[in-house]
Q: What sequence folds into this?
């Protein structure tokens, strides 16, 4: 029962966050493009295409997490995206660039708190990715063969 609750809590938390994050970026593309530019990490010609298309990836991941469609694949993609965000936030902050995170709002400056928040979201994503292996390992049974996953 606890595993099932944890499974659903992780899916709902991440799915809702990705949906919300994608939605605010779609609704405010100019503000999101300014946030992307603030990172000073991509060429100027890439900023508008990123601002136009990237939020739809977040929406798709949110829907996939909530629907449970190809969950291990979607959770893996979410974990990679969150890892990328965490590294990008950290590098930007270490470079001393004053930029807005653009993660869940456009008035959230990059700080150790935003880095920690994004990094901690890796935990539920990794749980969903590795859930079957974790259950088997903690129960003391061998992990299933890769073809059974």
A:
């Amino acid at each position: 029962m606890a595993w099932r609750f944890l499974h659903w809590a992780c899916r709902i938390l991440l799915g809702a966050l990705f949906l919300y994050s994608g939605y605010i970026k779609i609704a405010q593309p100019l503000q999101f493009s300014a946030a992307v530019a603030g990172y000073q990490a991509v060429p100027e010609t890439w900023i508008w295409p990123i601002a136009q298309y990237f939020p739809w990836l977040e929406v798709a991941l949110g829907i996939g997490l909530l629907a449970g469609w190809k969950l291990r694949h979607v959770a893996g993609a979410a974990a990679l995206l969150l890892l990328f965000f965490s590294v990008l936030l950290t590098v930007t902050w270490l470079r001393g660039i004053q930029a807005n995170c653009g993660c869940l709002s456009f008035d959230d400056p990059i700080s150790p708190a935003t880095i920690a928040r994004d990094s901690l979201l890796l935990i539920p994503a990794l749980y969903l990715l590795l859930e079957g292996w974790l259950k088997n390992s903690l129960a003391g049974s061998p992990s299933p063969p890769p073809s059974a996953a």
Q: What stands out?
A: The two ends are 21 Å apart (CA to CA). The first helix runs from residue 2 to 27.
